[in-house]
Amino acid sequence: MVIRKKYKPDFHVPNFGAPNRKRVKDRWRRQRGVDNKMRTKKAKMGPTPSIGYKNGSEVRYMRPDGNFELIVHNEKELLSILTLKGYAAKFSHSLSERKKVALQKIADEKKIKVLNRV
């Protein structure tokens, strides 16, 4: 059985897309107005984020390709991925370019998947 993430709708701010609301960005902000219909959870205003949309612990933080990512800072952490099934390496942003190239060479030899290849 394949475990998948739950469906999650797009959460919009009220009146998004209205002609006089060009400045309203397509992002979620909690509504705090006294008379706001979305705050009072009127069905016609669309869904609001709630705990019910949360994914199960076995698929939370999973990437679309089915792997989890592990941030790697050194060679020891890179080689520890060999023992973890379903994980891929992601180089830390604080690594130098030279260190990333060296770790990439090790990953290619050991056939470790790297998400942000050099």
Structural summary, described in words:
With 118 residues, the protein is an alpha+beta fold. It has 2 domains: 10-54, no CATH class; 55-118, no CATH class. The protein has 2 helices and 2 strands. Helix 1 links the parallel strand 1 (68-72) and strand 2 (87-91). It is elongated. The two termini are 35 Å apart.
**SSE string:** EHEH
Tell me the helix content. 10-25%
Q: How many domains make up the 3D coordinates?
A: 2
Q: What is the total tally of β strands? A: 2
Between the first and last Cα atoms, what is the distance in angstroms?
35 Å
What is the overall pLDDT average? 90
The helix tally amounts to 2
Poorly predicted sequence stretches spanning 5 or more consecutive residues: none
Beta-strand content: 5-15%
Provide the structure class: alpha+beta
Secondary structure elements and pairings:
Elements: E1 68-72, H1 75-80, E2 87-91, H2 97-110
What tags apply to this protein structure?
2 domains; 17% helix; 118 residues; alpha+beta; two-stranded parallel sheet; 2 helices
Short description:
By secondary structure, the chain is an alpha+beta fold. Helices cover 17% and strands 8% of the residues.
